[in-house]
């Protein structure tokens, strides 16, 4: 309705730009609400109904990822394991909201969100890595930003909602360490925006 409302009235180019921006934010917020609802329903039932259409398959796939991350937390267990050899070590540095530098020796395969939690870094991750929020938003140092895989559509949707978005913004839950990321710096923005669960702060597993 918000998108169609502005079409009936004429205005300046600035008015049109603002209408389009408001429309995009409204659509994205509606997407977040639908994903949160899907997660709630999915956690109450272990039976998922599949569909023959491509769009429904993608939707079901998202619910399956949600159930896996919320129930299993497999990655958080992995981050607690020591590296098998010195060759597996990946050194990264977190820069927190007070601009304090925290060097951490991670390993190949570590997920940045869970690695941060393990070492007491205040990277929230309210949706438990189900791509339903932007509270694990980080800035990735150059040139390491260009070495990351391209963000999926779900991640891009959540980044559209992130506060203080920059060109080197990514979600920490979508970054998995590899040897070519050795030396990477990850800066936390001054604040995040939580549309997922108001006041929910997940605890490390």
User: Radius of gyration, rounded?
Assistant: 19 Å
End-to-end Cα distance: 42 Å
How confident is the prediction overall: mean pLDDT?
76
Strand order of the largest sheet: 2-1-5-3-4
Main β-sheet, in a few words?
Answer: 5 strands, mixed
Derived structural class: alpha+beta
User: DSSP strand (E) fraction?
Assistant: 5-15%
Number of helices: 6
Overall morphology: elongated
Query: How do the SSEs run, as a string of H and E?
Result: HHHHEEHEHEE
Task: Describe the overall structure.
By secondary structure, the protein is of the alpha+beta class. It has six helices and five strands. β1 and β2 form a beta hairpin. The longest helix has 32 residues, at 13-44.
Summarize the structure.
This protein has helices spanning 2-5, 13-44, 54-71, 74-79, 112-118, 153-161; strands at residues 89-95, 101-107, 137-140, 169-171, 184-187. It has 205 residues and is of the alpha+beta class.
Summary keywords:
205 residues; alpha+beta; 6 helices; 37% helix
Record the SSE blueprint.
Blueprint: H1 2-5, H2 13-44, H3 54-71, H4 74-79, E1 89-95, E2 101-107, H5 112-118, E3 137-140, H6 153-161, E4 169-171, E5 184-187
Parallel strand pairs: 1-5
Antiparallel strand pairs: 1-2, 3-4, 3-5
Helix pairs in contact: 2-3, 2-6
């Amino acid at each position: 309705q918000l998108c169609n409302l502005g079409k009936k009235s004429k205005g300046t180019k600035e008015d049109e730009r603002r209408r389009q921006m408001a429309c995009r934010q409204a659509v994205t917020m509606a997407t977040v609400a639908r994903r949160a609802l899907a997660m709630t329903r999915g956690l109450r039932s272990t039976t998922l109904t599949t569909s023959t259409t491509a769009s429904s398959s993608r939707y079901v796939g998202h619910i399956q990822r949600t159930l896996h991350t919320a129930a299993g937390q497999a990655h958080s267990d992995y981050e607690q394991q020591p590296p098998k050899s010195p060759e597996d070590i990946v050194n990264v540095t977190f820069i927190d909201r007070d601009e304090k530098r925290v060097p951490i020796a991670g390993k190949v395969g570590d997920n940045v969100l869970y690695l941060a939690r393990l070492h007491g870094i205040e990277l929230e991750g309210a949706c438990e890595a189900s791509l339903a929020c932007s509270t694990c938003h980080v800035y990735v140092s150059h040139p390491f930003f260009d070495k990351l895989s391209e963000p999926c559509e779900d991640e891009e949707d959540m980044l559209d909602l992130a506060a203080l978005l920059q060109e080197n913004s990514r979600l920490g839950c979508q970054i998995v360490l590899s040897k070519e990321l050795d030396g990477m710096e990850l800066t936390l923005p001054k604040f995040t925006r939580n549309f997922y669960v108001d006041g929910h702060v997940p605890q490390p597993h």
